[in-house]
Amino acid sequence: MKRTTILIAVLVVAAVAVMAVMLLRREKISPVYVGSSMRVPMEQCLDAYKKLHPDADIRLDFGDSGEVLSKVEFTGRGEAAVLHEPYITKAKRDGWGTKTHVLANMQPVIVVAKGNPKGVTGLKDFTRDDLHVGVTDARYTTSGQIVQQALANAGIREQVMARDDLVQNRSSGYMCLQVEEDALDAITCWDAVARGRADRVDIVPIEPAFMPHSFIDSEVVTYTDGRVSVGLIELKTAQHPESTADFVRFILSPEGQAIWAKCGFNPAVESPASQP
């Protein structure tokens, strides 16, 4: 009995030691930061890359695009960052990047329940009393800023924003979930996020006549027809720049780009920060 107790104690200590080493090793891995809207394609890119490179030591760290640069600044660490404009341009201006690459683009859309049971046809329906509606919050999101301009172009911004029941949130995923759970009838969010839930929601395009043809945000980044570039920044804080560059090459390869397209993202277009 005594020997058994000692053996169990030794095994427990060994297991704890192994876990401690694994946790310490994990903390030493400099992460690739990823904006939450880009989580799915980056997870799939990493899975595909690890099939080719089983020993690849890459960790993804997720957060809102607006939080990603704060993490880089706060920790002083990071191999790369995947985020959308204007944060690509901001990172370059703030001197965090060595190279930037445009991966894809997104555009705000209207999202409704599967089958569009309320017959939503466009932004004008956001004034209907029989609908519960929501928009991404313009104070925190680029999609929200673009939608605000589209509402203004439609001549209904004040009316929509004055609704007592209007829901606003910074997360496109959260807004889609409200439609899935029948809490809201129509919302605005990124098209790529909605396409990732195509089995649960439908997309209604924002009318081209209302979508701002040329929109300039507070970072002086210009968006054409509401399209916002998604980019990857190789960071100056990278501890393993060569292995990071190899992972980046995979993301930019036809296989990597096919993953982004499958996840609902539009093909890459140039942005102000698309050059090294």
Shape: globular
The succession of helices and strands, N to C, reads HEHEHEHEEEHHEHEHEEEEHH
Radius of gyration, rounded? 22 Å
Strand order of the largest sheet: 2-1-3-12-4
User: Could you tell me the mean pLDDT?
Assistant: 87
CATH fold field value of the largest domain: D-Maltodextrin-Binding Protein, domain 2
CATH superfamily of the largest domain: Periplasmic binding protein-like II
- End-to-end distance, in Å? 67 Å
Structural classification: alpha/beta
**Biggest sheet descriptor:** 5 strands, mixed
Can you offer a commentary on this structure?
- With 276 residues, the chain is an alpha/beta fold.
- The protein has 2 domains: 30-106 and 227-262, D-Maltodextrin-Binding Protein, domain 2 (3-Layer(aba) Sandwich), CATH 3.40.190; 108-216, D-Maltodextrin-Binding Protein, domain 2 (3-Layer(aba) Sandwich), CATH 3.40.190.
- The protein contains 10 helices and 12 strands.
- The protein has helices at residues 2-28, 39-52, 65-75, 87-93, 142-153, 157-161, 172-180, 191-195, 241-252, 254-262, and strands at residues 32-35, 60-63, 80-84, 97-106, 108-113, 133-136, 167-169, 186-190, 201-204, 214-216, 222-224, 228-235.
- The protein has a 5-stranded mixed β-sheet, with helices on both faces. A 5-stranded mixed β-sheet has the order 7-6-8-5-9, with helices on both faces.
- Helix 2 (39-52) links the parallel strand 1 and strand 2.
- Helix 2 (39-52) packs antiparallel against helix 10.
- The chain is globular, with a radius of gyration of 22 Å.
- Residues 9-27 and 271-276 have low confidence and may be disordered.
